[in-house]
Amino acid sequence: MIPWLDRHRRFRDQLSPYLDGELAARPRDALERHLVSCAPCRQELAALRATARALAELPQAEVPRSFTLTPDQVRGPAPRPFAPRPPLAAPFLAGALAFALAAILVVDLGDIGGGGPAATRQEAPAAEERIDAYGDRAPAEEEAPATGADTGGGTGGTAGGGTAAGGAGGPAGATAPAPTPAPEALAPAPSPSPDQFGAADEAARAQPSPPPQAGPDVAPAAGEGDGLDPLRAAEIGLAAALGALVAGAAGYAAWSRRRSP
Amino acid sequence: MLSDEQALLDRCRQGDLHAFNRLVEAYQRPVYNLCLRLLAHPQAAEDAAQNAFISAFRSFASFRGGSFRAWLFRIAANASYDELRRRPRAPLSLDAPLGPARTPPDLPQPGEPLDERAQRLELARLLQDALAALPPDQRLVVLLRDVHGLSYDEIARAARLSLGTVKSRISRARSALRRFLTDRGELLPARFRSTSEDQ
């Protein structure tokens, strides 16, 4: 930002409080010095003054009837019930619930689609990237690596099918694309995969049950099968419930602050 | 402010309805007009104003001194927003343009030439449209300032905002109104079309 332009904009922001006599002495003096040399600011000040004057001259309606209160009005119930729900809490809750639902769908369906724990472990970073990308409204080209990594991880996981070889292939696929840009992010995943798939297929044919030494951190989870991980689901559910609770409380507090006289 | 306002407020604290009604008589016109400008609907404004006074009497214990007018306007603004939510199906919207039937009645001023009156009415109609186009938070503060003449401090109390926020909202609202009117310069009185600096 050009310093002169920045200063000019700051003076513009002070025109309205200046009009109302709400500027302190020093900024007021500085603004008055600026007005001497700045015709656009003088014109803006004149227009703002005319606008304020026109508002002040708006015709005031007569009251249609007297609003004085009767004892019955004061004793009886309020004639108009207030809004049944806090207006600000509703959007907060809706957003929190939508986020929780999306999180459960993305993560848990990812588990189901991946078919195995290897996929779960490998796809976690890709899923986070996707959520971040949506959250930041990143452009499509920025979302591409996440999709590619997701696809690669998903393929590896699916091919792994709960085998140890598939689990071993995951980290290679996950680490390889990291330093490379988007077009290559897709490539490294298949490149190790054929070998891994071959090894996996052979291993699967030769030995249906996975050897635990192939992927010690993945193998224990392999025993949990293809279904939903209940611990994981409980974590997500708890986080979603807490998020909804906090958002609801914040919305209700804001609404209460605004409502109370 | 009424000359005996403080005495009336003291009596209101004791639950004196007669004293409160004296305050109602003094403030009902500005309160009704604030509701009318916020809601752009006479019947809704009437309901909101009545509810505001009922609510003010019932919650008088929460008034801790200071500007009674600012406290009352805050209740009126809340009653208006409640009324707006209560009538979701009605053709009420803070963002809806105001039709001619919704503008406050305007009486000719004695001795006012016809063309000047026509210009004044046209300006009032444009201002109504310009106000309706403002975001509700900006509309409230600029109404409190320029139509009802509250100080920045009173507006901060009425809208529960910091002084800095009040300043910036009034500034943004006036700039938006000024742009709205300038864009329709051919419909405005000369003082809005003119770019002279002597105003």
Overall description:
The complex is a heterodimer of chains A (261) and B (199). Chain A is an all-alpha fold and 261 residues long. Chain A is built from 12 helices and no strands. Chain B is mostly helical and 199 residues long. Chain B has 9 helices and no strands. Chain B has helices at 5-13, 17-39, 42-58, 68-86, 114-132, 136-147, 152-159, 163-183, 190-193. In chain B, helix 3 (42-58) crosses helix 4 (68-86). The relative contact order of chain B is 0.11. At the A-B interface, helix 1, helix 3, helix 4 and helix 12 of A face helix 2, helix 3, helix 4, helix 5 and helix 6 of B.
Number of H- or I-type helical stretches of chain A: 12
As a percent range, the share of strand residues of chain A is: under 5%
* Elements of chain B, N to C (H/E): HHHHHHHHH
**E-strand count of chain B:** 0
Helix content of chain A: over 70%
Q: Using CB atoms under 8 Å apart, which protein chain pair has the greatest interface?
A: A-B, 48 and 68 residues
Overall average residue pLDDT of chain A: 60
How many strands appear in the DSSP assignment of chain A? 0
Give the SSE order of chain A as H and E letters: HHHHHHHHHHHH
Determine the structural class of chain B based on helices, strands and strand pairing.
Answer: mainly alpha
Q: Report the radius of gyration of chain B as a whole number of Å.
A: 18 Å
Number of helices of chain B: 9
